[in-house]
Amino acid sequence: MTNKLVVYITGTGNTRRVAEHLADAIGADLREIVPDPPFTDADLDWTNPNSRSSKQHADRSMRPALAEDPSIDGYDEIGLRVKKCVRNRGFSRIDL
């Protein structure tokens, strides 16, 4: 039997629900990637060019710190679920 992990990041909770269903369906553990500090609603306002997410989207070198290391040790299969708008806001590349 393989050890499976579903990793996700969410701003509003929608991706969390999809990841929970996926993890349940395939019998996987679930781990959330949380930025440090966490995103606020104002941070996620993509219509505001001065919001944190807009600035991170404009400058790809800006990557938020993570609240904890999302270790993948001990897992044979890993699924990553990232919503497109979040991926565009600074999490298109995460070193695990």
TrEMBL record:
Residues 39-68 are annotated as: Disordered. Signal peptide: none annotated. InterPro entries: Flavodoxin/NO_synth (IPR008254), Flavodoxin_CS (IPR001226), Flavoprotein-like_sf (IPR029039). PROSITE patterns: FLAVODOXIN. Residues 4-76 form the Flavodoxin-like domain. Pfam families: Flavodoxin_4. One of its GO terms (molecular function) is electron transfer activity. This is Flavodoxin-like domain-containing protein.
